[in-house]
Amino acid sequence: MKTRTILIISGILAILASSCIPSLFPLYTREDIVYDDRIEGAWDGGFDQLGIWTVEKLEYHPKRSFFDPDWTEPDEHSDPGNIHYRLTVRQATEKDTVEAEFLLHLLGLGDQVYMNICPHEFELDHDFLSWHMIEANTFLRVKIFDDRFEVQAFDPWFLFNLIKEDRIRIDHVSFGGEILITAPTRDLQQFVLKYSDEDGALFEPDVFKRI
Length: 211
Known about the structure:
Elements: E1 2-5, H1 14-19, E2 33-34, E3 41-44, E4 52-60, E5 71-72, E6 83-92, E7 97-109, E8 112-119, E9 121-124, H2 127-130, E10 138-144, E11 148-153, H3 156-164, E12 172-175, E13 178-181, H4 185-195, E14 206-210
Antiparallel strand pairs: 1-9, 2-7, 3-4, 3-14, 4-5, 4-6, 6-7, 7-8, 8-10, 10-11, 11-14, 12-13
């Protein structure tokens, strides 16, 4: 069994699979990244589709060597550029409990904070299937408090209608009724800044409570 980076909108996060806009490129650049210690810990999304989220700030080493872990505890020698959040999502299914890991980044954009999530690694024992996966990021507006945080996803139908009405020109591909944004990060940020406060752009908040 091989461990591969699964680069797709994962079913492990139903909120992202069903109610977010996937993007080939992330919403953040390195200069946009922010940290907020309040996001660390274990959180309950309140129902099975959201699951239990565990957020840890760790040093990330992408495939540093075969024998070394990808994540280590930061210390005084850590490169600040390697410090990221690891998001572990645990969900209960009818038969079992499943987990998956994601890279999570907080970023400041305008006067709001957003969360960018991208799948990390989990075990997939079907090599041919894994060759067909592509990387996808999802992004949510986030408000963080001591005992909870709230996330709001963009409504894919909002973007679909913008494109249909020729109100926006943003690089994308359509397939199976879905939209994948292929625009670079700067164009993606401009879309978020321009439209995030319009009526209907964002879903109602989902609330995660500290466990």
